[in-house]
Design goal:
198 residues, Rna Polymerase Sigma Factor, Chain: A, globular, mainly alpha, 2 domains
Length: 198
């Protein structure tokens, strides 16, 4: 079976040769998925945007050392995950410096309310929003490795092999993390999915 060439890796090789337009193309394609991944890891919208900029800055700084050993998205999300882990470590060492740590519940709500104002508040939409909140809450309670594995699994173009490389674990460990994470989520969400009671 022949391996499909990765067009994003080809773009990154052009970036390595100094092609700024190729870099802009990669940023345009991956900016939102990277912000989404970071936001779901850190639960801080401003921090997600700042950290996403740092991810692309790191990609650009490392362009001369880039080698096409994996898909570009694997390379990119490895950098994103490492920066998230660094931020989580920094927060644990300096909790007073992190507004997100002290105001998690309050800061989550305004962002959701802003998004929800664009929709008609039909009963189905309210239930959908409440279920989304419960899913986020359950996701945040997962251990970091399981949460990262689940979030990376939601990226359409990442295979289990790529997720394993990003997480720096074996393929079987990655599958186990995803399975355990999904089972935990299913168990935590079962009461809401069965009855519809909140």
């Amino acid at each position: 079976m022949s391996v499909q060439p990765d067009p994003d890796a080809a773009l990154m090789l052009r970036v390595k040769r100094g092609d700024r337009a190729a870099f802009a193309e990669l940023v345009d394609k991956y900016k939102q998925p990277v912000i989404n991944f970071i936001f779901r890891s850190l639960r801080d919208e401003t921090e997600a945007e700042d950290l996403a900029q740092n991810v692309f800055l790191q990609v650009y700084k490392s362009r001369s050392r880039y080698k096409q050993t994996a898909k570009f998205s694997t390379f990119l999300f490895t950098i994103a995950r490492n920066l998230c882990l660094n931020e989580l470590r920094r927060r644990s060492r300096h909790p007073a410096e992190s507004l997100e740590e002290t105001h998690t519940d309050n800061e989550d709500q305004p962002a959701r309310q802003i998004e929800d104002k664009t929709q008609i508040a039909a009963p189905e939409n309210v239930l959908h929003s409440e279920l989304a909140d419960k899913i986020e809450e359950a996701l945040n309670e997962l251990p970091e490795n399981q949460r990262s594995a689940i979030l990376l699994c939601r990226q359409d173009d990442l295979s289990y092999e790529q997720i394993a490389k990003i997480l720096q674990t074996s393929l079987s460990a990655t599958k186990s993390l995803i399975h355990r994470g999904r089972e935990t989520l299913k168990e935590k969400l079962k009461p809401y999915l069965k009855s519809g009671d909140w």
